[in-house]
Design a protein that fits this description.
2 strands, 2 helices, two-stranded antiparallel sheet, single chain, mainly alpha, about 10% strand, Helix Hairpins, about 75% helix, rod-shaped
Length: about 120
């Protein structure tokens, strides 16, 4: 005989799916920022190899604009700082979501184990 899943457990399972979706979104954003950070690091590495008076261009929309090597390095360092802040925030969100998921999974498992989906007060 199949037992009906109580509404409270069903709500917890729905919440669990939502948390897992949020975690996937956070992980995707984190991966994108990490990729961009690697590109910034590569660009900084190449710019630092150039002589001080080298001509450098940066992309602005659909245009290439001339800039100085030092300005390009400064812009990239600012972008790197911003990416680092975003990554720190995403790591905190990821950890919080993983903790919430774990706690909710344990709760659902306990409820289902304690009576095969029986009512919990």
């Amino acid at each position: 005989m199949a037992t009906e899943i109580p509404p409270a457990v069903r709500n917890d399972l729905d919440r669990l799916r939502q948390l897992e979706d949020q975690l996937q979104a956070v992980l995707l954003r984190k991966q994108q920022y990490e990729s961009e950070l690697r590109n910034v690091d590569k660009a900084l590495n190449e710019l630092n190899k150039l002589p001080q008076d080298s001509k450098v261009y940066k992309v602005v929309g659909t245009f290439l604009l001339s800039t100085t090597r030092d300005e390009a390095i400064q812009d990239l360092n600012q972008r790197k700082e911003l990416l680092d802040l975003h990554l720190q925030s995403l790591v905190k969100q990821e950890n919080m979501l993983r903790k919430q998921i774990s706690e909710l999974e344990n709760k659902v498992k306990q409820v289902l184990a304690a009576g095969q989906g029986g009512q919990v007060q």
